[in-house]
Amino acid sequence: MAENQNIEWKESWRDEYLKWICGFANAKGGSIIIGKDDKGKIIGVKNAKRLLEDIPNKVKDVLGIIVDVNLHETENGEYLEIIVEAHPYPVNYKGQYHYRSGSTKQELKGNALDKFLLQKKGKRWDGVPIPNVSIEDLKPDTFDHFRKKAVKAQRIEEDVLTDTNDHLLENLQLVENKYLKRAALLLFHPNPENFVTGAYIKIGFFQSDDELKFQDEAHGNLFEQIEKTMDLLFAKYIHSSISYDGLNRVEKYDYPKEAIREALLNAVSHKDYSEGTPIQISVYQNKIIFWNDAQLPENWSVEKLLTKHPSKPYNPDIANTLFRSGYIEAWGRGTIKMINDCVRFGIPSPKYFYEMSGFWVEFTKDKLSEEYLESLDLNDRQRRAIDFLKNRKRITNREYQSNFNVSRNTASRDLSELVEKGLIKASDTKGAGSFYEI
Q1: Residues 6+ apart with CB under 8 A from 175
Q2: pTM, whole model, 2 decimals?
Q3: Cβ distance 115 to 99 under 8 Å?
Q4: pLDDT for 251-285, tens place per residue?
Q5: Strands 129-130 and 179-181
Q6: Which of 38, 245, 281, 379 makes a 20 to 30 Å CA pair with 63?
Q7: What's the pLDDT tens digit per position in 370-386?
Q8: CA-CA-CA-CA torsion for 257, 262, 264, 268, nearest 10 degrees?
Q9: How far apart are the first and last CA of the chain?
Q10: Rounded to an integer, what distance in angstroms lies between the CA atom of residue 271 and that of residue 45?
Q11: Is 315 strand, coil or helix?
């Protein structure tokens, strides 16, 4: 068996391996084999019977935990197996906290240590109480905004809405031992950046990856950031086309507003605010990318997000308040909802990525991208017809026959399929003079 997250091989015992035991205890447990080389070959260990007694005592004295140490005898010599159980409380080695991640041991420091200690205590970052801030420091207008939204959403008792701000925060579980939680500051304080670095949203329009044309920032509490960002995106960044249905003006944006809003709300509610990096929205001519510092739940993958899954918000107190006000759902349907919104709108499904210490959502408005066309199972003639239309703007049935050397029936069938797939449309003119365009 190879070394992995739960197994470590060592040729001989050194007291510094107490750090590895600490790391296993703080993670998912595991075993350290003393008497194997780095290829897993048994080479034997000297003084095995003395170590059989010494190691458990050193572990107990230094780490304060109990481990099982087993002696194994083979033809190639004796080796020791140290079995470490996962512990529900933090274990430290002389004040240092080590953690087993993959096949490596890491010493936890800074934000990583804070999050680890909170997790072991059953707390989340947004649920930590903050001293020296009172309810009087929060923004009254935001409480009024919340109440209006919550009444409309019908997700909170009506008598709570008419109660004091103090009782409202208590009902939203944003107070602990008379202290406001971090979530309360992010949601209701006029300037949460005084307490949380990077608690804002950046928006930029890019001509290319290295050419930023213009940018904006949305500051204030989370409710204000959400509303400001949506206003900026659909007033300044996302293009809309204007048409008329009789005397009525019809405005259609390049992306479905519901999907863009869902991506924004997911970023706000799932962001890891301890990292101090703002949410970043990059807008291009043909795509929009939402990025935020984030961590998927343990053992989750991007693929799991594409199917029905439970709701496991990274910031449960923030998510609960956004849910009560009607901003988000509580059933883990956000990623699927964005896909369905885009399909109904007629653009490719959004792509999801979990990399570079963050989570990405990418929307593409170009229905004629190579990747999207490949997914539609077009024949070679139809692909070439799309390329033709990109350059020539329109094509007739007769041109299709001539360019691809097919009969009129085949041309009609190919073109009809492209119409059904929403790639092209037929002109209003029928018969002689009719044509197709993107």
Answers
A1: 129, 166, 169, 181, 184
A2: 0.75
A3: no
A4: 778 899 999 999 999 999 999 999 999 999 999 98
A5: antiparallel
A6: 38
A7: 767 777 888 989 988 88
A8: 160
A9: 58
A10: 48
A11: coil
